[in-house]
Amino acid sequence: MKQDFIKFPLHLILHPFDGFWDMKYENRGKVKVSLAILVLLVLTLILQKQYAGFLVNFVDPRTLNSLDDLQFTVLPFFLFCIANWSITTLMEGEGKFKEIVMTTGYALLPMVLINLPLTFISRFMTQEETSFYWLINSVASIWFILLLFIGIMTVHQYTPAKAVLTLALTVVAMGFVVFLGTLAFSLGLQIYWFIYDVYREIIFRT
Amino acid sequence: MQIKRVLLLAAIVSLLVTLFDVQPAPASAAAPYEAYNYDFYGDAVPLPAPYLPEYAITGKSLGVGDFNQPSDMYVAKDGSVYILDKGNARVIVLDSSLKVKQVIADFDNNGKQDVLAGPEGLFVSEKNEIYVADTEHNRVVVLSNDGKLLKTIESPKSDILPKDFKFVPLKVTVDSADRVFVVSRGVFEGIMQFDEKSDFMGYVGTISVSPTLWDRLWRSLSTKAQKQQMELFIPTEFASVDIDSKGFVYATAIDINSNETIKRLNPSGQDVLKRFGYWPVKGDIRFRMFGTNSGPSKLIDIKVLDGGMYVALDSNRARLFTYNDEGDLLHVFGGRGNQLGVFNNPVAVEQIGDKLAVLDMGKNNIAVFKPTTFGSLVREATIEHYTGNDDKAVKLWEQVLRLNTNYEIAYLGIGKSLLMEKKNKEAMEYFKLGMSRKNYSVAYKRYRREVMKDNFGSFMTVLISLIAAFVAYRLARHAIRRRSVKREAGFY
């Protein structure tokens, strides 16, 4: 338990090449750990929006909605996984879907680890010190992107150039998925209303 | 019979009751507009009306015949009101009780009778001389207070002016040293400045124009013929000028692309308006881009009030924007319509005592607005704060908050004075309510230092003793363990 949930993820974010290799070939990674990290990320985001210090918190309290935070974190996560899986399957990637989910989840860990204490510290900052807040925040994001890049590279056994290309294509594919999803949704809605109208017509006739 | 009488009595009584029953005054009918303010998030927040229309002055009510397209007015220090009646080419002078003192329709110009033609702007200097921008005669006419011509400012001669320069004065303002500032039609360089001998001195308040990157890219890609079709990147004209008691010129420009349509020019012509509010000082910050009532505010007149406040008149949506000296929007009211208090084509705003007067060119009248309790409290508090009487200002702001809990500027005002009194923690609370991060940070910094000063000793004591305890624990554990190992080994 401690090995899976604490020791290995911490080892992985500090030694990504080593860690992702172990995750893939030594069966050290667990999907449930990855999903736990995702849930923690959602929690830290909610806490950050709610409790970050006044000087760094520009969120309009009237727009706070934890469900929004949930869906805008979880949906892109799986969107990325699906898009990446679709692209890498075509591009001779060796990674399985499960491995992509694990990689993305583990890569999110620095955001969780940095966001939570930073939210607390931001309550004791003055205006001049808030630049550190933004700096550390961006360090977390850069760390995440770096981990994701290394993870994708290792999981699919890509060269760095190919990994960059796949990541770019993944973003494009995410756009496609969103577009197709919206299209399907709107068509589905039309069909639903059509059936509903026909149903009402029949009801009123009899 | 008995019943009939009782019924009759009841009917009479009920009639009388309805006759003498005090009807509650309709609460909302008093103001024909919605007053509002912009909060930190840029939403328009309703306010209690700061001013209510009181009455309207027309030419007929003054007994001088109807106004015909009145274009400007001015209220002098002594309270007398000067109205420039453009269509009738006359200046109407009212005394402080708004009775007609004089009507100046013509004047003696070197033995000849002379009249005004389509005058657009009016100003009365501290020496009580009347300056009229006589637009269609291309001159500024200076009259004494009893209607005698003192001098005229004709088309200026200068090296920096082109040969075919046409002087079309629209608005005029004079400072205490008799320097004259003229807004002229078709002049994009700034406000024309004349010295006391009516010689042209130069321009002040030049509007700088900086095309956006997109504009430049688009221009570099277009052909010569297309370029000729395009708009030129020329600065816009000023619309109106006013001068405050310190000699700073306030000017408005109608520039839809600018966020700095109100300017406060120092004597060397630089813009020194404070813009510390959440939003640019330019009238409405949220508006529709297309359709009716769309587009940014066109500020066609500005008036400096007391306490560093100034009010700008928007001709697009006929609203009045009042700002304090720091550039915080205090309130907005007014609108288009036919009732008293809303306007058809407002052109000038002035202050009569603590009242506001708006000249309406379309309705040919002057609407006079009386401050409400809310309006006068805000006004007084701003003035007290401006003059440095913070404790008085705080009491007034507290009353303002009782009328409107959402008034962020009141929280700021209280916070600032609390900060002065070194009540940092309370000040933080108020700055948070006023959504001012800059001031909050200052208060918080002081508060944090205070707490640190008080608690550093005890904090360090606790920390050091905790470290000592931890070290002692480790040492003890180590010793015990070693001893047990030794015991097992049979040393004891």
Name the features.
heterodimer, A: about 210 residues, mainly alpha, 8 helices, B: about 500 residues, alpha+beta, 4-stranded antiparallel β-sheet, 9 helices, about 30% strand
For the termini of chain A, the CA-CA separation is 65 Å
- Helix- and strand-based class of chain A? mainly alpha
Which term fits the overall shape of chain A? Answer: globular
Q: Strand order, main sheet of chain B: write it out.
A: 3-27-26-25
Q: Helical content of chain A, roughly?
A: over 70%
Total count of helical runs of at least 4 residues of chain B: 9
| H/E element order of chain A | HHHHHHHH
Radius of gyration of chain A: 21 Å
Radius of gyration of chain B: 32 Å
Question: Kindly state the mean pLDDT of chain B as a whole number?
Answer: 87
Oligomer: heterodimer
Give a short account of the largest sheet of chain A.
Answer: none
**What share of the residues of chain B does DSSP label as strand, in percent?**
25-35%
- Fraction of residues in helix of chain B: 25-40%
Low-confidence stretches of chain B: 21-29
Q: State which percent range the strand residues of chain A make up.
A: under 5%
- Compute the separation of the termini of chain B in Å: 128 Å
Largest sheet of chain B: 4 strands, antiparallel
Per DSSP, the total helix count of chain A is: 8
